[in-house]
Amino acid sequence: MSYALRREPGHTRSRRHAGCDERCRLARLLPFERASLGRQDRERYRGALLFDAAMKVFKLPAAVDGTVQLGYPAGVLVPLGIIQIVCLILYLIPRVSPLGAVLWTGYLGGAVATHVRLGNPLFTHVLFPTYVATLLWVGLWLRDPRVRALLTPRAR
Asked: Is 5 helix (H, G, I), strand (E, B) or coil?
């Protein structure tokens, strides 16, 4: 991938900005390139999240076994799968993507609470939903200027 850089007005190569090329590369990508990275991420996550939801909706044996091992009855699978599908649809619609990301974050927070309750290992089980939520938000930050404006620190 080529990194097309643009110069901000008044951006000079002074001592203060000497290392800026490496540190600011992503921030200075042209908007269409940044959005393209976000769309690629969205495509990757969509398949994995849809697969997980489909396993729950169709009550595949692996999903039933995993849910029972986590201490939940098998009857919660279909409602959980439907919730995941609704969150995914909202996340994929550009106008309401931030709402979808917030709902996914809440859903994945419940998964973290479940693993904490069971005393599962920290990095492989407890924090895995946090990794997924982080990837969802990074993809959204890359493709949505509203989210970038909200989550990017401003210079004083």
From this structure: strand
